[in-house]
Write a structure and sequence with these properties.
Two copies of one chain form a homodimer. By secondary structure, chain A is mostly helical. Chain A is 69% helix and 0% strand. Chain A has one domain: Tetracycline Repressor, domain 2. In chain A, α1 packs across α5 and α3 crosses α4. Chain A binds a DNA duplex through α3.
Chain lengths: 137, 137
DNA sequence: CCCGTTCAGGAACGTTCGTTCTTGACTGTT
DNA sequence: AACAGTCAAGAACGAACGTTCCTGAACGGG
């Protein structure tokens, strides 16, 4: 019943991952999300409840569908270095003040340790942290 | 001439370093700064020009007076691990979109490399990044 | 063919943001 | 003692924030 959804929820979630991987949570406004995702404000709130709801959905999707496969698929030469950016941002600026994010990130880091070993995991994070500095817009 | 300043500019700068080391730039409002620093809004703007001006002043002070001495003083066992937090935050969330910050952070990382070697420097950043996740309020 | 639901567009809400202004009290210099 | 310049306290500013509401139009199920 009712008019069918005009957008793909998964596609929007994936696009949100891309946006949140570049700008920090506080640096990305709802207007930015509306424009960047091409989805109306109403639909965003109806679907995800709030900005934070969208963020958590995107973060979970990213951890499950972007990060996890990279770890099981063997090895350290990451195909896309930017694949760590959302993890970095979430760890540095959200996790310290959001227990739910802290829990998710903590689990992800444990998986990273299990897959690569703690030293390699830490070095990988440090490397991507340094690379992000010269991120082009 | 005029009434003398009621606060120590250096002390305020140092306090601002502490505040910006915990909360991200966007997560710290001018009201937070006014309350946390105990300095009136007027004095803040008169002295530092803007929120960003205060941030840059604090960042420079931190790089010159907090980080640099740690590097020359020999060695890797950092006395205070939190001494890397402002560097981390600036690198992850400010540097990518603020060339001035990017330049400062780039120089600081070069110094870190020179003092510890690139691998140790990267590992140190990764370690502190991980530690920050469970930062207590 | 309606009816109910969801859609899209956009105005509007109250709050908070960074910044500026107004007022009057204070203090060092002349 | 008068002045000049800075201080503190807080109101006020427009813009932006996250969120909600209003208005029709679009559609699928009965």
């Amino acid at each position: 019943m009712g008019r069918p959804r005009g957008f793909d929820e998964q596609a929007v979630t994936r696009a949100a991952v891309a946006l949140f991987s570049r700008r920090a949570y506080d640096g990305l406004s709802v207007d930015d999300l509306v424009n960047g995702l091409g989805v109306h404000r109403n639909s965003l709130y109806k679907t995800f409840g709030s900005k934070r709801g969208l963020y958590l959905t995107a973060l979970r999707w990213y951890l499950d569908h972007d990060l996890a496969p990279l770890l099981t698929s063997g090895a350290s030469p990451f195909p896309d270095p930017a694949a760590l950016d959302l993890l970095l941002l979430a760890a540095v600026e959200q996790a310290p003040f959001d227990p739910e994010v802290a829990s998710l990130i903590g689990d992800a880091l444990a998986s990273l340790d299990a897959a690569l070993g703690p030293d390699a995991a830490t070095a990988l994070l440090g490397l991507r942290l340094r690379a992000r500095i010269n991120l082009k817009e």
